[in-house]
Amino acid sequence: xxxxxxHTEKSLGLxxxxxxxxxxxxxxxxxKGWNTENYGAPLADTDAYGANPVGSFLNRVHSFEVQPxxxxxxxxxxxxxxxxxxxxxxxTVCPTGASYKRVEDGIVLVNESDCxxxxxxxxxxxxxxxxxxxEEQVMKKCTxxxxxxxxxxxxxxxxxxxxxxxxxxxxxxFGDLADPDSDVSKLVAERGxxxxxxxxxxxxxxxxxxxxxxxxxxxxxxxxxxxxxxxEEPTGFLGWLDRTLxxxx
Amino acid sequence: MHPAPSIILFTTLSGLGFGMLAFxxxxxxxxxxxxxxxxxxxxxxLAVGGLLSSTFHLGHPERALKAFTQWRSSWLSREAWLAVAxxxxxxxxxxxxxxxxxxxxxxxxxxxxxxxGTVFATSMIYTQMRTVPRWNHWATPIxxxxxxxxxxxxxxxxxxxxxxxxxxxxxLQVFAWIDQDRHEREDPSNIGTAxxxxxxxxxxxxxAPHTGENYLTxxxxxxxxxxxxxxxxxxxxxxxxxxxxFLLFLPFHHALAAVAxxxxxxxxxxxxxxxxxxxxxxxxxxxxx
Amino acid sequence: MNVVLNTSPKVSxxxxxxxxxxxxxxxxxxxxxxxxxxxxxEGNKDHPVNKGVLCAKGSSGIMQHLSPARLRAPMKRVxxxxxxxxxxISWEEALETAVSWLxxxxxxxxxxxxxxxxxxxxxxxxxxxxxxxxxPNYAAHGGFCSVNMAxxxxxxxxxxFWEFGQPDWDRTKLFMIFGVxxxxxSNPIKMGLGKLKxxxxxxxxxxxxxxxxxxxxxEWVGITPGTDGLFILSLVHCLMKAGRIDLDYLARFTDAxxxxxxxxxxxxxxxxxxxxxxxxxxxxxxxxxxxxxDTPGVxxxxxxxxxxxxVSHRPVLHHMAEKYLSDEFAPETVAAKVxxxxxxxxxxxxxxxxxxxxEAIELDREWTDFRGEKHSKMVGRPxxxxxxxxxxxxxxxxxxxxxxxxxxIILGSVEVPGGxxxxxxxxxxxxxxxxxxxxxxxxxxxxxxxxxxxxxxDDLLIHExxxxxxxxxxxxxxxxxxSHGLMHMLIxxxxxxxxxxxxxxxxxxxxxxxxxxxxxxxVMKMLTDTDESGEYVIPRIIYSDAYSSEMVAYADLILPDTxxxxxxxxxxxxxxxxxxxxxxxxAIRWPVVEPDRDVRGFQSVLCDLGGRLGLPGFxxxxxxxxxxxxxxxxxxxxxxPGIGPLAGxxxxxxxxxxGGANPxxxxxxxxxxxxxxxxxxxxxxxxxxWNSAYQDWAVELGLFDAPxxxxxTLWCEPLRRFQLAAEGKHRLSPPEHLKARYAETxxxxxxxxxxxxxxxxGYDVHALTQRPMAMYHSWGSQNAWxxxxxGRNPLYVxxxxxxxxxxxxxxxxxxxxxxxEITVPVAHMAALNENTVWTWNAIGxxxxxxxxxxxxxxxxxxxxxxxxxHELLPPKGDGLRWANSDxxxxxxxxxxxxxxxEKTTAPVEAQPAHPAQKSPVGHGPATVKRKLGA
Lengths: 249, 289, 934
Fold this sequence. Notes:
heterotrimer; B: mainly alpha; Formate dehydrogenase/DMSO reductase fold; C: alpha/beta; Dimethylsulfoxide Reductase, domain 2; Barwin-like endoglucanases; seven-stranded mixed sheet; six-stranded mixed sheet; 35 strands
């Protein structure tokens, strides 16, 4: 049903730490690998070795430069996949019911066999989270690795999305954001997690932890006591050395 | 937004077709016999042709019937129902007029209103897109309906009406463009809100995720250059309204009317191309475009 | 809607654990198999290197394994060199061809064979083969990679970064990272940064470019390239001037108290005084008399001088005070040169001092030092550093790397909690590494291992007349401490016949006609150049690679290698190990799938060739071939009795480190996830160079034959010995033209001098390359997933230059160096040193290579900076060929490049454009859509 559930039992999602993400794209290809071999059609690549390769990816890493009013420019990396919005506009526009949000955990999925490939859901998504597979012509999107997180064929510790499992810097966290006591909810509270484009009214489940302040070097004047000179000249230094050593012994 | 030919043709042709059907269903006196046959043939050809064209945009047209299931939430689904309903009713209405010289009045009125409803539903597919400020605007349904009505008037030979409506459409369109520009400009989404980094300073996209294009950039991060859009707007007004209106004010001749209709059609095509090509999807912010 | 969704699908038929080879990290991977084929690759959670995580490259390994660029069978060249025209031949023909070329060289003059390997992870094996063959001309790629870093680390403190050591990620509070390629040791560094970030520890990034690790740094220092040494010595200046140095640490564990011969008349002037046993002397504070540094109970005096026969011999620390307290290194003096405000330099120095000394940490762990003194706790200075090629690939890189180690050491932050820690088999003093060997005897092996550490002129590989023994001139007067060789000089020297001509060049995994060479266009000419008789100047080239790289087209004989999932390998303690600061570890690769092509692992081919050539070590007494393949070698070879390539499960499978060969060893590794690990006892985890418990553990494991404690050497005596030779105080003497350079660059204390290329006037923009994290060298472009991430590379231009040239998006620029010019697309970047431009490394490809279509963006918009970096400095008019290298180690000075940049009209494609080479493997398929078990 392409109407949204009134309430979901959980709100599973990702918390992505922009302070930590180094932009390595590990999550991008780990996602591609798992989801090519698993949920639905493989994520195809057209013109794979040619002039204009275009493949479907469920997760992509952007980078942005920020020029603050003073100080050097800053660079940030932003991995972006489906945010599994509470008010997911991609679901309600779907004419066939292929797009749906699960009541049990809030994951937004596409039932590929019902997808007519009209592309409206991709238009409705402000985040660019949905991509039409160039070969299968059905809409692909992040499944939050629904076929990993409950998968009884995987060891318990591996029951997390492929992108989270692979992230070398530990910049991606997975959990229930509806549970205020979950690790992810605590992290969001502690670090002031934010919605992307809140004005779009989508109420995304995925949260982004803003980068900590950059280049706020303590003023030298504050630190100066740590560098109080012991001498101005090399000979003075040797005098200090002698005095210090004799105090020690 | 990418101006896909199939979608431009779809909205243009089906708009004209359903506009024409609306006139055929609601207007009196209704044509009869062969005259009715030709009118209905053209109207159905446009409406159905437009709808068929839209299926070229689908990845899986063979599953198109599934699109009827979600009428409670989806405008596309509603459009499908309304289109079928109006085509069926107008078909019965046409059969009455063409073959039985009988005007099934209720069918005509209901079919005509449903035809307008279909155009409205089509327009709402775009209007509902919060992600495309230029579409998410009062003018989208009004213009879709207005173009359908003016087109319908032209195609059904309502010269007097068309003479009156064409200048009004021109004013409406100009006003809509101005207000859509404003609306897009004032939209609260920007690269700062898209990244959540806006409060730190001025944000610009550095490296895109991939160095080549992808589905998103091809489909949604397309935007016509400003100077081209100005020229195309002038062309829209000239072809779509000004020249047809001028032709209609000349002594009436079927050839002139036909030229006026064709020019109008061309104008609407340009308008629709711009409707897509000028629309900025908020996902563009992530790509710095 | 009732969507039936199976949330527990079968993941795979089987998981086979092996080691990644998508870069040099050597992470453990789980290869999921379906229907006997590779289905999915993820990180191995138990593996010491990556603990389950895996980078973009590793996670795309499946596409490398399935690459359309894989070579299919041995080939011989049938068209002209460079054309790419080949004919497939049998292995028998290929091997016999190789033997027919190599056998005569072995019998007459093995130096006619130059065998160099690139991204080889079996250097202890390939060097063993080359040693058995008897050629002095062997090296891997270290010389053009990061030898400055490795050598400076070993000469100064017995280990360096990456394989040698790592920050104490769990305890450090302030982490400073200099010029790190983001693909090197990348998963461990990313994991470490993640730990720091989770704890909110501070990260300072020093790099002209703010990407990757520098993007997440809390503070970014956008330094001027090539000035890191000056910046670091200015920090040293500030810390010394404030007395914020760890005197206790310096006195106990370093040569700071060691006495320097102060007699200008002595042949040992400037060397450390020693006793009869050769032990370095310090003044014992208890007696005021000179004493061997390791005498039990000795209290080395940092201040005490020794006056003898009218000469004062002062401790190293006095020399340091004299040098570094000079205004030459004051922040105000250096600020303009390094591009960092003086106050900022002081603030960073103060922050280092604050964290090192005021936030010191202590672990309640008893330990005993090499003098027998017991310590009740382990004191830590929680300041850690890491650096890589950014500071080392300069012509002042060796001294810059030494300066960084000096900074670490005066803060007392090496091998202490919260600081920088070594990984076994390091720490290991430079003096217990082998020395280089280069004595050729026809028909016999070389007299010892090729590469090693020189400690003075006597260790050089030069003939009586002073000319180099090696084709790359390693260990010659030109660069006397070139521990990794100079691969970047191989082709240039062989072409010039300087020091001599060679007959056959054998290369493995080294893309020398493209991104692995300086002066790429020039190298292509050298490889195809012919002499008067019409023969190629470099007569024969044998090349082994798994893929259709640019270099393939320039070889005469191709020995196709396997992909990393189809081969045996060992990541050995004898080589570049995968140990952790708290454990020794090694690993294997094994064929999780068999090749579906007529290809063989190159190491197995060398075993075969070794047998056919009758090389000792590769033949049995009856003359038969000793090892049927590399796996056989891995299990059965013993370098010394009881010591083999793999340390785990030796003997009957219950011995580790030392023990006899075990025919089931590889099975054991496979059962354990393809790695072996042995943890260091807790009381041995820190202070390793001086910690008796560690030394004993290392001996037991076979890392050393006897405990080998040592002092960190702030005073680098080998450098001083070369200076003495230049001063005429040695029987050997460098050529006249090098003497002034020796005086300037071979100071026994770390110094800074401007990079050699800085003399070129008008070229006022620095040009750098960086590795993207999602690409490793040129390999990634054949990978359908990775090439979408980096399919082309713009030249990133800082705001100042962008505005000055009125650049706009989509513009192109002509970039000129003293050596040549390229025309390339530009893009704007603000977070960049204002006088620096840069691009991603090795994205540009030659048309026809890597099975890509000829109009691939890599070939039309991608480009290399290599074309404008020469392997030689511009001629000085003296007729000499001055290498564009570090004068100490010969490290290729990639990052010394200076350019001019100007806007130009967009060409059809990036320039220089080279004609396409014919692809011996065709082109990749149009579409990739693969799913097993569907």
